[in-house]
Amino acid sequence: MIHPSLFGLIVFLSACNLKISHDQDKYSSARTDTVQIKSQADSLEELSKLYTRAIRDFLRASENEYRLHFDTLYIGKHVYGQPDDFPDIDLPAMIDSTIIRIIAPEDGIRIQRERKNEYYVNIFSWIQDQHAEFVLVSFANGMQHQFDLKVRYSFDRSRRNIHTDNLHFEHYLGQMK
């Protein structure tokens, strides 16, 4: 025989669990679209091209705007179960003569402590059927937020064309300019 207070606790916890599941379902369709696109095997090559393009645009725009030239760019591979997680893709070892290193966020913090002049970048993306948005968040000087590059692309998958619709910086404290 189950003690009445234990039975009440079980019912209460079950109800809480149902509420959480219901709340999560409300947002799951939006997350599912992005996650499915990022995880489909046939689109990994396209996804890699989009990320490579965003990194290339970051490198070029940073050079034009801030006169920054990177020997190595450290990119955080954040994976927290969110739609903007860094996907499991292969990127070139070099982009525009810059070595690209994909590292865990913990390693980014360590590198920033040891070598404050190195840049660490987190990349967030929201990819849909015909457009993609990226935010590249840069850190330097011991993990001080430097600037963000926001870029929006549109693409025609049948022709494999990627067009830059919008590219701009948002400036923060610690910026170079």
Can you tell me about this structure?
It is built from 3 helices and 7 strands; from the N terminus they run H-H-E-E-E-H-E-E-E-E. It is α/β, with parallel strands linked by helices. The protein has a 7-stranded mixed β-sheet with strand order 2-3-1-4-5-6-7. It has helices spanning 4-39, 44-66, 105-114; strands spanning 72-76, 94-95, 98-103, 120-127, 131-140, 144-156, 161-171. The model is unreliable at 5-39 (pLDDT under 50). It has one domain (29-171). It is globular. Helix content is 39%, strand content 31%. The longest helix is centred in the N-terminal third of the chain and has 36 residues, at 4-39. Strand 5 and strand 6 form a beta hairpin.
Query: Strand sequence of the main sheet, in spatial order?
Result: 2-3-1-4-5-6-7
Q: Structural class, from secondary structure content?
A: alpha/beta
Order of helices and strands: HHEEEHEEEE
- Distance from first to last alpha carbon: 72 Å
Tally of helical segments: 3
Strand content: 25-35%
- What integer is the average pLDDT? 80
- Say how many strands there are: 7
Indicate the percent of residues in helices: 25-40%
Please give the domain count: 1
Largest sheet: 7 strands, mixed
The gist of it:
With 177 residues, the chain is of the alpha/beta class. It is 39% helix and 31% strand.
Observed structural traits:
39% helix; 177 residues; 3 helices; 7 strands
Question: SSE layout and pairings?
Answer:
Layout: H1 4-39, H2 44-66, E1 72-76, E2 94-95, E3 98-103, H3 105-114, E4 120-127, E5 131-140, E6 144-156, E7 161-171
